[in-house]
Amino acid sequence: MTIKHYLPGIMMKDSNETNDLQKAGLKATLPRLKILKFLESTDIRHLSAEDVYKSMLDSGDEVGLATIYRVLTQFESAGLVTRHHFEGGHSVFELNEGKHHDHIVCVKCGKVEEFYDETIEERQHVIADKNGFNITDHALTIYGICSDCK
Amino acid sequence: MTIKHYLPGIMMKDSNETNDLQKAGLKATLPRLKILKFLESTDIRHLSAEDVYKSMLDSGDEVGLATIYRVLTQFESAGLVTRHHFEGGHSVFELNEGKHHDHIVCVKCGKVEEFYDETIEERQHVIADKNGFNITDHALTIYGICSDCK
DNA sequence: TGTCCAAATGCGAAATATTCTCATTCTTAT
DNA sequence: ATAAGAATGAGAATATTTCGCATTTGGACA
Lengths: 150, 150
Known about the structure:
The structure is a homodimer.
Chain A: H1 16-23, H2 30-41, H3 49-58, H4 65-78, E1 81-84, E2 92-95, E3 102-106, E4 112-115, H5 118-130, E5 134-145
Helix pairs in contact in A: 3-4
Chain A binds a DNA duplex through helix 2 and helix 4.
């Protein structure tokens, strides 16, 4: 669905999503576009593959579960989403928007808050250097009881 | 198997492991003793339930896989081991000895190094306070390429 | 030390989560 | 529009973990 005809004089691409996919080296297939648009439109930040599958089904966009898994993994490789391994054994995915952050998770209700701490970021690089590693990524998750659950 | 008869004058308990289990509120059953002894004797720090199962089989101590899972979970609750969710989707367990530490994992070869950083520990408490959480635990894993794999 | 009861174990079935296979359908370059 | 290769869908296959239940065991107490 293009809107270029409604904005004469401005040369628009078919959609931001198509473009984002192509920049990521991924063909702009319908399932991928739908999944990306879904991730951008939902206000739930952390979703399992199953969550994505069911939510999309509910809104009438059926995409096979295997494809959801494949596409989310591709999005992860492309840097479009981040995969987290919170407690529970299954992966959850988060659309990468804005800046990097870490998470603090309530072990009672599952609520997830985001935070960013420059000091911690810096220390991690010091630690990686000390151990001879080149950091590719990191995952810091603090677990605790949130104020609602105390 | 007790050794108290060989140390006259010293009142020894049946074994450290039996004692550790009882202090943890767990009956000193044979499978639990074997698993605990195995964890204490191996020099591999991070093991999956399957790893524990197979290694014990190899050394002639067969314990059902379901029991391994149950016992490791109980040990976790009792604070004897820590469960980690490194990349790969399955849990690995680590015997708690010495002090808390975090991990830096090589994404190529899987090597795991431990580190402890007081500054990061402190910042986490500040962050939890700021968000109204009582920390119960935390998991910081840095991912990178180790010096061998560069 | 023998007995008894609750708790623990073993084993296979079931549940979950994720990946794979392969026939069919799209995408995109031409 | 067409062809070649990539992507998808559906279900089978795998991997990991849990569950149900019959049997065994640990340990409190007589």
